[in-house]
# Entry
Amino acid sequence: MKNRSGYMMLAVVATLYAVLYFFNADKILLALKASFHILKMIAPILLIVFFLMALLNTFLDEKNIAKHLGKESGLKGWFIALLGGILSHGPGYIWYPMLQDLRAKGALDGLVVAFIYARSIKLPWLPLMISYFGLAFTLVLSFYIILGAFIQGVLTNRLETR
# Structure
């Protein structure tokens, strides 16, 4: 059975907007206008992310990726893990079976950790973050998240070898 929680949430929100419209139409219209403004800011980047994910899923299989994430991968493996984490979207638990399979095929645990950690950078949210906090703050925070992902991965690999 397909999960319909998204449709239920949409129905609840639409119903609330409709009911509240009768109490204060001006505020509801203002809220809808703000929501559409945010959607316009996020939509182009969200489409790019969906496109990239479709390309990755179409042209790269897990066996090919796993050979580039093994013990001999070097900086290329770190780059793939960090960039992959940043580009990934959706709930984290969707990625767990793939990550488990990659580990079973020889991917380093540190690279899996870096991937999961780097997922905290959400490309669709970056324009919103820039509008609230500014470009400099967003760039510095993103840099430290990537650095933290790398450090966590390195520590995981070092602790595993002991």
Notes: The chain has a mean pLDDT of 85.
